[in-house]
Amino acid sequence: MSRLPAALARGVFVTGTDTEVGKSLIAAALIHRYNHDGQPCIGMKPVAAGADWRQGPEGPYWHNDDVALLDQASPIRAPQAWRCPYLFEPPIAPHVAARQAGIRIDLDTLRSRYLQLRDIAPAVVVEGAGGWLVPVDEQHTLADLAVALQLPVVLVVGLRLGCISHALLTAQAIAASGLTLAGWVGNHIDPRMLVQQENIATLQQRLDAPCLGIVPRLEPVDLARAAEYLEWPKQPPLSPP
Question: What's the CATH number where 52 sits?
């Protein structure tokens, strides 16, 4: 993997073209890559829906698969209240889950937890939920959180029928938010997808951001292997003295 660009040194915000496109796998692979390349990094899942009660070494806790995968990628430890401030039991839209639980997802709280993570790790990979404009309350979406954190964005494109339009629309929405699309990652989620290479070529042509990698379908999930398929965007050439 090429040298980490300075613009990505604080981390990235990972979003996807839709739900179930492999955001957690790619986010965890990025965390693994940051740490492997010498930049201490931890993961954050600000809002997660879909949890079950489990017994751990330190007692019972709420488990979420996405949060667990991000934890697996980093040697840095932090309280779950920082890593995933809002965790809901039913696997439904976050704003609906919050309403059912009688609470409000607060963007200021999320930003505060992010800053607490920054105190113990120079880089934080923040993984969104679902797509770019997933609501968190009556007025805000996770895009508003990305804007508040001012992180560059990595877009995970789930390679399946319809991904080109979803990717281009998401890229437009990211640009409209005033944030930088640092790159995109193609993730093979549909083994039956036809003309995959043609779709990838179209994405490379039409997305105004570098392709950071194309990750094959990995069974079982292997973060180290997934990270090997990723590539930091190339550094801009130095100006002559």
Answer: 3.40.50.300
CB-neighbour burial class of residue 210 (10 A; exposed 0-12, middle 13-18, buried 19+): middle
What's the whole-model pTM score? 0.94
How far CA 31 is from CA of 20, 26, 35, 143, in Å, comes to 19, 9, 6, 21
CB 55 within 8 A of CB 17: no
The answer to whether the beta carbons of residues 43 and 26 sit under 8 Å apart is no
Active site residue: 23, 45, 95, 166, which one?
A: 45
Beta bridge partners of 156: 16, 185
DSSP 8-state code for residue 138: S
Domains in the chain, number:
1
Instruction: Say if residues 70 and 43 touch (Cβ distance below 8 Å).
Output: yes
What gap in Å lies between CA 140 and CA 151, rounded to an integer? Answer: 17
Residue numbers of the domain that contains 15: 6-228
Burial level of 193, CB count in 10 A (0-12/13-18/19+)? middle
Question: Cβ of 101: how many Cβ atoms within 10 Å?
Answer: 13
Q: How far apart are CA 159 and CA 211, in angstroms?
A: 13
pLDDT of 60-112, one tens digit each?
888 999 999 999 999 999 999 999 999 999 999 999 999 999 999 999 999 99
Question: Is 208 within a domain?
Answer: yes
For 126, phi and psi rounded to 5 degrees?
A: -100, 120
45 belongs to the catalytic site: yes
